[in-house]
UniProtKB/TrEMBL annotation, chain A:
InterPro entries: LMW_PTPase, Ptyr_pPase, Ptyr_pPase_sf, Tyr_phospatase_low_mol_wt. It holds the Pfam family LMWPc. Its EC number is 3.1.3.48. It comes from Shimia haliotis. GO terms for molecular function: protein tyrosine phosphatase activity. Residues 2-140 form the Phosphotyrosine protein phosphatase I domain. This is protein-tyrosine-phosphatase. The active site is at C8 (nucleophile), R14, D114 (proton donor). Belongs to the low molecular weight phosphotyrosine protein phosphatase family. The keyword DNA-binding does not apply.
From TrEMBL, chain B:
The lineage of its organism: Bacteria, Pseudomonadati, Pseudomonadota, Alphaproteobacteria, Rhodobacterales. One of its GO terms (cellular component) is plasma membrane. It comes from the Bacteria. This is Tyrosine-protein kinase Etk/Wzc. Gene3D superfamilies: P-loop containing nucleotide triphosphate hydrolases. The keyword Coiled coil applies. One of its GO terms (molecular function) is ATP binding. It is found in: Cell inner membrane. Residues 15-106 form the Polysaccharide chain length determinant N-terminal domain.
Length: 148, 728
């Protein structure tokens, strides 16, 4: 497991945060992010960025990317924020369904809600969820991901 | 994105396969279709045999204009009615006037017939063999029963009520009446119940003792309705004036006699109708005759009396002449008066004929007045004689005229033929018109084939295989991978001999991407597993286990894992074809039997890190071999040497081998083929495993073909929550 792709809808709130958090926790991996209806070329959401900065995570240099089959097939693992995203990928690209898993798979195995245009409190709550989920994934990925 | 575009452009055109598929599924359901055809064919035959036959009689009538043939004075022909119209006559034929007469002539309101056993009653009467004498069958008809009534009279309240007649020995019978009364009787004698105004005489009775007949008198209106519903009248061709009558009934005698009665009644009523006007005139003339005769007698008496009292009276020549003239005119006047009486019946005084008659009458009356004035000059006696003689002659003449007219009318009446000619007398065909057995049977067979085919197709439609990963997840199997239908693989699968591995021959195929996907999901699926071995199986053959095992092994090895692939199907294993091995090369069976050490059986492959163990020589007892501890030890040994051990197993629903193998592997994967493996089979496999204390880690949906899914593919994620402009 080397390449991980974190996927949400717009690729400006949840997935950039997830990408940077996971990257920080598992430096051996190559983590990137994309959105299934991405705001292409856009920087990360301001509130999300602020919340991340407060937690020592930088979202600087992020640019929104559209999720494509090529991006998905290059990745070893695709982590989505909601079950609906997995259903979408399964329907559009059935071949990728196997490697698509929930970002929250090993924490609560539930959807991580979209904080877009919500208050900062909500963004903070979502950040905490992402943080907890990323650390669970990092544990799963690090020992085996390092061996190759 | 380019990848995505190429996906949507992939040409798929396999209509011919669908037709082939249809034929195949029909062939697979041939017994169902055959069974259905036979069943419905049998039902059709029974229905045809159980339907009492219907016979048809037909007759041909001609409506004709026969005025010219009438041998009566032309003045009278007007009395003989109009030329009939077909449509009118058809209605008359079906009227109560005609049919009611036929019903009462033939006593069609008497119903007498044998009783049939419930259900297949009529069938009993045409069995080619004698039925055993069962008690419960005794009252029912078995063929040859007959009952003819000579008389039936029932009180009005018993109309339409059943009277049961039971045959007793020696031509006697017992009757059970609607008021629960029992009567005994003998054939040919009247049985009556004067209290209820009931009487019956059986003319003929055939049937064994114990048989029961049903007798009833139905209301005339009902009998007429019955006859009318079986009668059809149509004109042959437009305005041909030829009417064809058809009548259907249960026997050809009845059909023929009823139709005969109807046509005869109809013709008779038409004749009566034609002569009706002549009849009316005749009645009038006859009513006037006695009066006229009395007048003649009275005039005679008076003249005689006068001559006696006045001795001889001699009339002069002049007187004689006057007398004759007056008497002639008087005759003429009387004749006109009679004519007038007749005309009055038909015309108003404004009618030209009538008016002319009145003119004539006036002229004659004036002339008579003139002559009378001339007689005033004659002597009194002579005048009296003239008056009396004239009166007598006038009365005599008028009487004679009436007699003649009456005679003419009688001739007219007698010679009236009506306007209907019977061209063909009623005759019935000896063969029944219904049921047409061959047609019923043919239709039943066709219906059977159609229904059978429909059942087969419907069953196939309902027995559709898994169509989405959601269906597998519903029964509790997480889907680890969805593998697209690969045309290259399918083509290779059909060919004999060595087979290529898709992951090697065409690494860019979409299916290969799915195997990489499977590797990821299985990686996480095996995190908690006890060993690094995977059993891959399916409910039934041809789900694609070997294809998946091989390709997955290759993909895993290509990613750097040390992989061992074992062909665990020691009955029909074919994995050796992928790796250039031969059929009877030593393999799993030989290792387990202790004939070959593991190291000799392992086959090195072209893929780095992948080793292969074929199934070996097919042993007679694969399940026993697998149950030995040797298999467990073998897996343990391999687990220590490899990162991943994949065992390709036989199908679960066919043999127990897979269950035995799965007991020793870390995880088990179930392969379901898209659109072919029914969900029910997947559930059956899950139950089988559950009974053995096993469970599946996940499922692989193989042969996925999005083109077979209706709609859904053009799905796009609607990003309604993101308003791009609001951020500007």
């Amino acid at each position: 497991m080397e390449k991980v792709l974190v996927v949400c809808v717009g690729n400006i709130c949840r997935s950039p945060v997830g990408e940077r958090v996971l990257q920080k926790m598992a430096p051996g991996l190559s983590v990137s992010s994309a959105g299934i209806a991405a705001l292409e070329g856009h920087a990360a959401d301001e509130t999300a960025e602020r919340v991340a900065r407060d937690n020592d995570i930088s979202l600087a240099g992020h640019a929104g990317r559209q999720f494509t089959f090529d991006l998905g097939s290059q990745a070893d693992l695709i982590l989505v924020m909601e079950k609906g995203h997995k259903a979408h990928i399964t329907r559009k690209f059935p071949e990728l369904s196997g490697k698509t898993m929930l970002f929250d798979q090993w924490a609560k195995a539930e959807d991580i809600p979209d904080p877009f245009k919500r208050l900062q409190d909500f963004h903070e709550a979502v950040f905490d969820r992402i943080f907890a989920a990323a650390s669970a994934w990092a544990k799963k990925l690090t020992p085996k991901g390092a061996t190759k | 994105m380019s990848q995505q575009n190429s996906r949507t452009q992939a040409p798929v055109a396999d209509d011919e396969i669908d037709l082939l598929q249809l034929m195949k599924s029909l062939w697979a359901g041939k017994w169902t279709i055959l069974g259905c055809t036979l069943l419905i064919g049998c039902i059709g035959t029974i229905v045809a045999l159980n339907t009492p036959p219907t016979y048809q009689a037909d007759a041909l009538l001609q409506l004709e204009d026969n005025k010219a043939n009438l041998s009566v004075p032309t003045a009278l022909t007007e009395l003989s009615g109009e030329v009939p119209q077909s449509t009118t006559e058809i209605e008359i034929l079906k009227s109560r006037l005609v049919i009611g007469q036929a019903v009462s002539n033939l006593n069609l309101d008497w119903q007498a017939g044998p009783t049939f056993a419930p259900g297949l009653g009529y069938l009993l009467t045409r069995l080619p063999f004698e039925l055993p004498d069962y008690e419960f069958l005794r009252p029912y008809a078995t063929g040859g029963e007959k009952l003819r009534l000579d008389l039936l009279r029932v009180p009005p309240e018993w109309l339409d009520e059943d009277i049961w007649l039971k045959v007793l020995p020696d031509q006697t019978f017992s009757l059970s009446l609607p008021n629960d009364q029992e009567l005994q009787g003998t054939v040919g004698e009247i049985v009556s119940d004067t209290e209820h105004d009931f009487a019956i005489r059986v003319g003929e009775m055939e049937g064994d003792a114990g048989k029961v007949f049903k007798v009833s008198q139905i209301p005339e209106s009902k009998a007429v309705a019955n006859v009318r519903s079986n009668l059809s009248v149509s004109e042959k061709g437009r305005n041909s004036g030829i009417l064809e009558l058809r009548f259907t009934a249960g026997s050809h005698e009845t059909a023929q006699s009823t139709l005969h009665a109807i046509s005869q009644t109809y013709v008779a009523q038409n004749v009566r109708r034609s002569a009706a006007e002549a009849q009316k005139s005749l009645e009038f003339v006859e009513s006037q005759l006695p009066i006229a005769r009395k007048k003649v007698e009275a005039a005679e008496d008076e003249l005689n009396r006068f001559k006696q009292s006045e001795a001889t009276v001699d009339l002069g020549l002049e007187t004689e002449t006057l007398l004759t003239q007056i008497s002639l005119l008087d005759n003429e006047l009387r004749r006109l008066q009679v004519e007038e009486l007749e005309l009055k019946e038909r015309y108003t005084p404004n009618h030209p004929v009538y008016a002319q008659l009145l003119d004539n009458k006036n002229l004659i009356q004036q002339r008579i007045e003139q002559l009378r004035e001339e007689t005033v000059d004659l002597p009194q006696i002579q005048r009296d004689v003239i008056a009396l003689t004239r009166a007598l002659e006038v009365d005599q003449d008028s009487y004679l005229q009436m007699l003649r007219r009456a005679q003419e009318l009688r001739v007219l009446q007698a010679s009236s033929l009506g306007h209907i000619r019977i061209v063909d007398q009623a005759q019935s065909k000896s063969l029944p018109v219904a049921p047409r057995k061959s047609r019923v049977l043919g239709l039943a067979l066709i219906l059977g084939i159609v229904i059978g085919t429909a059942i087969v197709l419907l069953r196939n439609a309902l027995r559709r295989g898994v169509r989405s990963s959601a269906q597998l997840e519903e029964v509790g199997l997480p889907v680890f991978a969805t593998i697209n239908r690969s045309k290259i693989e399918e083509r290779a699968g059909r060919s004999k001999g060595a087979r290529s591995i898709l992951a090697i021959s065409d690494p860019t195929d979409l299916a290969v991407e799915a195997f990489r996907s499977l590797r990821t999901s299985l990686h996480f699926g095996m995190l908690d597993a006890s060993s690094k071995s995977v059993a891959i199986t399916s409910p039934a053959p041809t789900a694609g286990k070997s294809f998946i095992s091989t390709n997955f092994a290759v993909v895993a090895a290509q990613s750097g894992q040390r992989v061992c692939l074992i062909d665990g199907d020691m009955r029909r294993g074919r994995l050796y074809k992928f790796f250039g091995a031969k059929k009877n090369d030593a393999g799993l069976a030989d290792i387990l039997a202790g004939d070959t050490p593991l190291e000799d059986a392992k086959v090195a492959t072209k893929v780095d890190g992948l080793e292969f163990i074929p199934c070996g020589k097919y042993p007679p007892n694969p399940a026993d071999l697998l149950a030995r501890p040797d298999f467990k030890d073998l897996l343990k040994d391999l687990n220590s040497q490899f990162d991943l051990v994949i065992v390709d197993c036989p199908p679960v629903l066919a043999v127990t081998d897979a269950s035995i193998i799965a007991q020793h592997t870390g995880v088990s994967l179930l392969v379901a083929r898209f659109d072919e493996t029914p969900v029910g089979e997947v559930e059956a496999v899950l139950r089988t495993f559950e009974n053995d204390g096993l469970s599946f880690t996940g499922a692989i949906l193989n042969g996925f073909d999005p083109k077979k899914l209706i709609g859904g593919r053009e799905y796009s994620f609607q990003n309604y929550r993101y308003d791009y402009k609001s951020r500007e």
